[in-house]
Amino acid sequence: MSGGVRIALLLPDLLGTYGDRGNVLVLEQRLAWRGIPSETVTVLSSAPEVPESCDVYLLGGGEDVAQTAAMRVLSRSPGLQRAAARGVPVLGICGGLQLLGTEFTTGDGVRHEGLGLVDAVTEPAGERAIGEVTANSVLAGVGMLTGFENHLGRTRLGAGSVPLGRVTRGTGNGHERAEGAVRGHVVCTYLHGPILARNPALADLLLEWAMGAPLQPIAEPEELAALRVERTRVRARNPK
Amino acid sequence: MTGTRRDGEQGETAEPDGERTAAGEGVPPPPRAADDATPTDPAAVPPWRVIAPPHPGGPATGRPLRTSLAVGAGRVVAGMSRRLRLGSGGMIGGRLALSLQPGLLGRLAAGRRIVMITGTNGKTTTTALVAEALRSRGTATSNVTGANMLDGHVAALMTDLSAPFAALEVDELHLAQVTAEFAPSVIVLLNLSRDQMDRVGEIRTVQRSLRAALERVPRTRVVANRDDPNIVSVAAGHPGVTWVSGGARWMHDASNCPRCGACITDLDGPWRCECGLARPEADWTVTADAVLGPDGRARQLSLQLPGHVNRINATFAVAAAAELGCDPDRVLARIADLRQASGRYATVLLDDRVVRLLLAKNPASWLEMLDLVSGHDRPLVLVVNSREADGYDVSWLWDVDFESLRGRAVLVTGERGLDLAVRLRYAGVRCEVVGTPQDALGRSGAEPDVIANYTAFRDLLARSVTR
Q1: What SS3 string covers B379-427?
Q2: Per-residue pLDDT tens for B130-184?
Q3: CA of B400: which chain A residue's CA is closest?
Q4: B423 touches chain A (CB under 8 A)
Q5: What's the predicted TM-score (pTM) here?
Q6: The complex's ipTM?
Q7: Contacts of residue A148 in chain B, CB cutoff 8 Å?
């Protein structure tokens, strides 16, 4: 890792609907604050192949057509799958969660095979889940998760994955109060916000997996603690 | 060939395509086409087709009793609302009139030439520009307060029953309702980017709705942005389109083909997707200091409204007005003096301080406003709310390049001040979070620029005093 941590931002032209780029900015800045160099490799859908040598991979969300187009690109050039098989951390948001699962059905009723990095099947629901979400993470040290969800899909986990958290408010996966999916170092979630900005412990956990070493604690942005508290109290849109 | 544009015809022989109910009196003479031909090329035919305006008095005469009652009641309620300072009356009066007579919008529109303006950014400013442009030829009414759904349109048309022209801003998802009621003369399609996705939904849904709206009115002229693939996708199939090119700016919502999802790599160039969607040839082009018309003439474009984005908005206004027979030179002279549109870009007195008010409500408009403030070093106050009209989700703050504010004095406030502050910290921008816009203004230096999103802007404007 002589050139620093290599962060792969996958297909932002297809999967980057709403603030997903923020997760990359957060990883870059948290490394910079610690004096650790990083390099972000942006892989567009026009790229000839997906590199497998990066240290952490991020996928955002997108609309149905974009998501299925992303699926075609990622299955044609399996760099992400090979990296994940080596234990490299992967973060998938919203549409990213759905295509990292085993199977997803788009709004038009068509079933698509997913990449299968987590054991999760997604089907569309009658209405979109929109609003603030809080969940308690099952990952050690991550604690309470906060984020904003906006998705039509409902995701059922199989035996091969555990949820990222248990929903205390909001919809999440829409089954068994589960939010997101985790298998090994592959982490999937419906939370925007973006999730790594609102949940720095999760950002640092991904970086520790990427570097294979513990990170020095840093002073957090002073407004962050207040923001986390504020977002767990507010009631925006979610009826529950 | 569409109803509003008759190829090859000149002068006053063209018939308006709306209802004709009275003889034309007091109508300014339509510009003579020959005046605009380049003197060195007398044979040149102006490429815009000169159209006679509809006749004042037309829309107002021969109204059935029920229409008169509905309009009368609506006006009374609107007047009461204004007098009691409950609001501008734009919504409530229109709503009441509409409830008394369904279909009233179509009746009020009959016989007039109406330009509808839609898109995610620049609707209100462009509507003000179009209204001003149309006034170069006749009276024009407009929904200046930004009430951009049907009741707002009814209210705008009710305020001046004899105006032959109207410029009406319409919410992206409500254009289809409008075209179910009547066929506008011109529809202006500005742009489509992510905006309030928790309320409006996906861009694709908006595209479907806009396409359905256009399919109902094949004779309507569409003035559309050729640099936005989402707009090209909506308008490309329409029989009569005038394309405007101002240069591509916010591109994060357009780098994959809206039809098939393939990557579009050269958005600044003559892009063409494998599925057939391609960048059309421009009829009107914005250059560094001029606007290039379909007649090949470059006309100087000078505006009081700041920023390149308003040069684009102004060009849409010139193009739309030209479709209705307005003379581009007269239009340009008229819109040059416009300083603000519904408070956008206005310099006002707020808490005894001279303040410039700027509206930014999504990544595309923040890009433009940050560009605008980068040219000076005035203090900055940024205000972000997240009420229903703003959208509850502010994740989009992370799609804005706030890094350009490094080294500036920035005060942050609004209901989502904490989200914005965290975003700025990650961008390396020093900022101070304060409780309210009043507190922020109290602590800012002289003559600050205030950039606020929708409800925050609206509240500040309501408290301000025009200078």
Answers
A1: CEEEECCCCCCCCCCCHHHHHCCHHHHCCCCEEEECCCHHHHHHHHHHC
A2: 999 999 999 999 997 778 888 899 989 988 999 999 999 999 999 999 999 999 9
A3: A19
A4: yes
A5: 0.82
A6: 0.96
A7: 198, 392-393, 395
